[in-house]
Amino acid sequence: MTHDWSPSPWGRRLSRSPDWRLRRLDDRFELTVDDQVYTLAIAASDAWRLQRGPVWSTLRIATEDGDLQLGGLPNAQADALHALWSASAQALQQDRQLADANEALAQLRDWLLQADTVLERADAQRRWLTLEQQQTLLLQRPTLPLDDEALWAVFDDPALRPQLDGEASEIEHDLLRWSDDWSALWAARNEAHLQHERCDAADLLDRVERQPLTVEQARAVICFDSRMLVVAAAGSGKTSTMVAKAAYAIDRGLAAADQIVMLAFNKEAATELQQRTDAAFQRLGMAAEGVQARTFHALGRQIIGKVTGRMPEVPGWAVDATQGFHQLADIIDRLKDRSLHFRTQWDLFRLVFGRDLPMQGEAPVADGWDSEGNRYVRTLRGERVRNIEECVIANWLFYNGVDYTYGAHPTLDTTTDTFNPGGADFFYPGTALYHRHRLDAEADGTAPVRDRSATHLDTHSQQLRSGALFEVLGDALSRHGLTLDPHPDRELPDDGAKPMPDTELIGLVRTFMSHAKSNGLGVTDMAERLRQFPEDRFKHRYRLFLELATPILHAWDDALAAENAIDFEDMLNQAAEYLESGRYASPYLLVMADEFQDASRARARLCRALVQAPGRHLFAVGDDWQSINRFAGADVSVMTGFNETFGPAQVMHLEQTFRCPQALCDASSRFVSKNPAQIAKQVRSLAPVHGPVLQAFQVATRDRLQDAIYQYLQRLQQQLQSGAIPAGRNGKLSVFVLGRYNADRAYLPAHWASRFGAHLELSFHTAHRSKGAEADIVILPAMLERSFPSARADDPVLGLAMPHADTFPLGEERRLFYVVLTRARRSVAMFTVQGKRSPFLSELVHDGALSVTAINGEPIREQACPACDGGVIVQRSGPYGEFSSCSGYPRCQYKPKSGG
User: 325 vs 320, 328, 335, 343, 574, CA distance in Å?
Assistant: First the structure.
């Protein structure tokens, strides 16, 4: 059918329009204008417009030659044209909607068939539907020509529904299934699978360990997802879960024995894991051959050997921590001998920049408090300055041989008629230079004033943090005739502050190197990270440290190359690279990683590479609350940010502990979980209670700690003999004495074995070495400030090599304290000294977890010193009689006012 439209003779003449004719063909319009032919799509309704006049209408049409204005069309014909064009466009739109709807139905049916096929296969094989399979299906889910709303609109249109492909009921069923929450459906299916497997595998789950697995453990065993993280509370049976999973995988045909590997943190852990596995398999009557428990490094070494045909050499000094320390010390000594600049920078960092500056909002640093309660920091030369910034300036001057005098001038607060500490005054004898340094809070934001009559210099915090202050100050000193003379061996006054020891800086460099290598960060990468640090960080200090670390890193690698060897971090990264590049194919279907909270980035990379092929499974087990090996390269963010490294993962919890009583679980959990970066968990226990779970005893002086511990052990023995408390597992009461350092061993009572050995099984461990062990009673012999927590546990400079470093104050030390608390099956007894109480112990007291008493149980009643951060007011005798002062003397010299 065709329709024609053209102007009337009078209309064309009066409108002065060209001769034109418009015809409707089957699927288009054809326009002829003065012998020029144009084709117009019916759907292109926005390309034409009718302008109605009194008698005639004008048709305006956009063509490839430009806009055409065609007049003279009688209004009646114009109305017919508009109606036909609109109807044609609507019909065409419906045709396209129908075509799109049928195409959408075909695509969604194909996808539904894929999803059904995957699910049916999993059901037939009695397999878990893994997140990997789910993600693959979701990625294959097509983007339909019509969205869900438009598709339902076509289905609901009575005129269009009969023209859709398929029966209406089938179409509706498909549309409903397409709109389902597939993740929820798959989760429900997996939950049903889990319940069936718990019944079908009940015999294995009940016999694999000495006791039947708990519900939590059984769920973790049966869940066979592609990526799994099991967050296991202390004493919750994570090793049992790993062993059971290996047995379950073999029993259900999910993996052969030689397709399973268990990765452990060190040799001791790998040996224990292997022994536990062998014993469990023997208990089940299964052959244990093939399932291997190995260290990460042993596996990495094997991979490199198979690819290169030669096992890589790892020198003893790259394995043993003590040997490694001495090797690094030798490297640094050689660098000092070869380079005066390096030696100067090394000692500059130790003497001047050993301590970081607090960030905005952090508590200010204090070495002590004066008799008025004002905090101070002590310089290398022995002065008391009011803050750490002034101390850095004074130490820089001392290191460079610049004589100076220091004074802090107070300012009058007219609202209260009191004096507040003002800026610091540095004067330089022999010159007219006067230098005032102000904190940012005191500064007005202006640039430092270099020259006021050439005698005044003002600096403030931002110049110090960026390092610009030292250039400004050096220039000013030079203009006044003073020459900088850096001298690291300049004699330090006896009453001066002690600089950072060489050993401490060497240890910091070693930890830094481990993290840099583990994260695959070169010097350029870390320099870029430094540029991105916020301006309130002590960037000048970090820059100096990176300049020191750079030649050390190169020299360390040169020493390895000289022996044709590599170190552990390089070995793990090289093995991972061979896997990632396809030069080595992982034979493992199931990779299990123990103690994952202590994994380094290199270990995580190796795990990811081992399971990169489809159909592989990673099962990582750990407790981020017990991540305590940062000094050895561990990065807790590998666990807390598991999904970022390994992709979508199933996270399960083992929260029932078999070790600690509930009250101890509650107190320790509340303490460690104050760090918001830790994974939340609710630890539950059915362990029996035998007396108080937390106790703290205070003595007057440090030399009385050993005797107090002796009295406590004597009391334990008496209670055991009288039957007031039951014996432990072997007829004795096991007791751990856990020290923050090896030196704490000195607090063990002499001849304890002959006195208590018949009833008590006593042993000493450092806090770190106690990880994984347990005892009936735990004794913490020295809960003292600057001891536990360690004052220098986490240096912020490590953040250069750790992109996701834990920044919570004393985060690592808090986790270490949690570890020692949760070694106890019954009770923890802490010992402290008057006025030297550990802030961790004070926090437990503040939280109501316990109260501190004397060894005889008498409550401690004392007044806290209002000036310092741990002292108490005590009575002393002097030449003029009795007086009160802080127990922290001489560090804190505060004395209450008479009658106060």
Answer: 9, 5, 15, 18, 24
Q: Which amino acid is at 554?
A: H
CB atoms within 10 A of CB 28: 14
Of 427, 426, 432, residue with least CA distance to 480: 432
Distances (CA, A) of 163 to 98, 104, 146, 171, 313: 7, 14, 16, 12, 74
Residue 715 has pLDDT above 70, yes or no: yes
Q: Write the single-letter amino acid at 570.
A: D
Cα 243 to Cα 221: distance, rounded to the nearest angstrom: 9
Q: 143: Cβ–Cβ under 8 A, 6 or more apart, which residues?
A: none
- 182 has which bridge partners? none
Numbers of helices and strands, H then E, in the chain? 28, 30
Identify residue 354 by its one-letter amino acid code. Answer: G
Query: Which residue's structure tokens are 């949690």?
Result: 818
The distance between the two most distant Cα atoms of the chain, rounded to a whole number of Å, is: 131
- 3-state SS track over 690-713: CCCCEEEEEECCHHHHHHHHHHHH
Q: What is each CA distance from 658 to 181, 273, 689, 693, 817, in whole angstroms? A: 38, 19, 12, 15, 19
Residues 725, 691 contacting (CB under 8 angstroms): yes
Task: Name the helix (H) or strand (E) containing 596.
Answer: none
CA–CA gap between residue 11 and residue 77 (Å, rounded): 12
CA dihedral 385, 389, 393, 399 (to 10 degrees): 90
Beta strands in 483-541 (DSSP E): none
Which tens digit of pLDDT belongs to each residue from 320-368? 888 989 999 999 999 999 999 999 999 999 999 999 888 776 777 888 8
Tell me the average pLDDT across 813-826: 94
Q: Amino acid identity of 679? A: I
Give strand pairing partners of 63. Answer: 66
Q: What is the 3-state secondary structure (H, E, C) of 823-853?
A: CEEEEEEEEEECCCECHHHHHHHHCCCCCEE
Q: Please give the structure tokens belonging to residue 206.
A: 């009940």
User: The pTM is what?
Assistant: 0.81
The residues, ordered by sequence, that sit 6+ positions from 342 with a Cβ below 8 Å of its Cβ are: 335, 336, 548, 551
* Stretch 474-479: mean pLDDT: 92
- 882 burial class (0-12, 13-18, 19+ CB within 10 angstroms)? exposed
Q: Is the pLDDT of residue 413 over 60?
A: no
For range 398-422, the mean pLDDT: 70
